[in-house]
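Standup notes, protein team

Yesterday: finished cleaning the Mariniflexile ostreae set.
Today: Acetyltransferase structure.
Blockers: none.

Input for Acetyltransferase:
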Amino acid sequence: MQRNLIIIGASGHAKVIIEIIETLGNYSIIGLIDSFKCKGTRVFGYEILGQDKDIPYLSKTYNVFTGVIAIGDNWTRKNIYKDIKKHLPDFNFISAIHPKSIIDKNVKIGRGAVIMAGAVVNSDAKIGDFCVIHAQASLGHDSKMNNYSSLGSNATVGGNVKIGALSAIALNANVIQGISIGTHCVIGAGALINRKIGGYKMVYGVPGKVIKKISKGETW
């Protein structure tokens, strides 16, 4: 029997997650939550039921206390999670893992994580809560993604790499084995990281160079 589920977010990122949930077939999507689109608008046939602030009311109205945060921005995803847990401590956040991803042995995946089609996670890797691994990205053996971090499409991360909380590895970036990347970092599209990167840095280029310091929640 399918259980009810809501998706928090209604952008392109949410569309990919809708496809994952539909493919898995374990949940019935009741609707979407989005603070920037009009209530009643439909995305892939699912109605936007209200804004983030409406979630406590909507959960009780539709008897749904399970969901996925479909927000691509790491910082925003964290803040939405904290706000929901403040008002609904027992709300259940599930992980959405596409069946066409490849997950090797002994991989640990936290709650609320999203792993898209074609992604590869190698043995003994650890994926924290609310991480996102986009299509065709690869996480090497024994590597660790801390909470709210993300790998963009076609990003390649070698073995024994540590990625700090809320850090984003963008499209086609490459991180060689054994590298540590601090918290709140942005590794730009196509960058090659061959040395340790401290926290709160934006890095671009081949090899990667620090472009500037960044602050918590800074957009890029």
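Follow-up from PR in the comments: Residues 39 and 49 are 6 Å apart (CA to CA).
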